[in-house]
């Protein structure tokens, strides 16, 4: 139905005027049959129109399909682009940590509250003092 919407040229997809005319004519036919509400028609038009624009990828030539690369090709690619790491080194990580020694704080609570206390890690009830 929308075969003229997207044309091929210079190995990139682009919108053709015939394609836009075809979409608008189809929307007009749908509107005359009153099968869809006006809001639904607007949504359909936006999806068709902007969806076709979204299919144009100006960086298409720069993308690589690494799923079909051999192990050797992946190693060569790694050598070419270098190591990419987003994690902190252990040294940077330890600089951000505060170290402290646990010291129990004396709480003034009644006996039943102390008996109901649980370990925050293992949730085992018991005397935590």
From TrEMBL:
The reaction(s) annotated as catalysed by this protein in its Swiss-Prot or TrEMBL entry are:
S-ubiquitinyl-[E2 ubiquitin-conjugating enzyme]-L-cysteine + [acceptor protein]-L-lysine = [E2 ubiquitin-conjugating enzyme]-L-cysteine + N(6)-ubiquitinyl-[acceptor protein]-L-lysine
Q: Does the keyword Transferase apply?
A: yes
GO terms, molecular function: ubiquitin protein ligase activity; zinc ion binding
What InterPro entries has UniProt attached to this entry?
MBR1/2-like (IPR045191)
Q: Does the keyword Transferase apply?
A: yes
Write the record's keywords in alphabetical order, separated by commas. Metal-binding, Transferase, Ubl conjugation pathway, Zinc, Zinc-finger
Listed name of the protein: RING-type E3 ubiquitin transferase
Enzyme category, top tier: transferase
Q: What is its EC number?
A: 2.3.2.27
Q: Which PANTHER family match?
A: E3 UBIQUITIN-PROTEIN LIGASE RNF165, RING-TYPE E3 UBIQUITIN TRANSFERASE
Query: What species is given as this protein's source?
Result: Zea mays
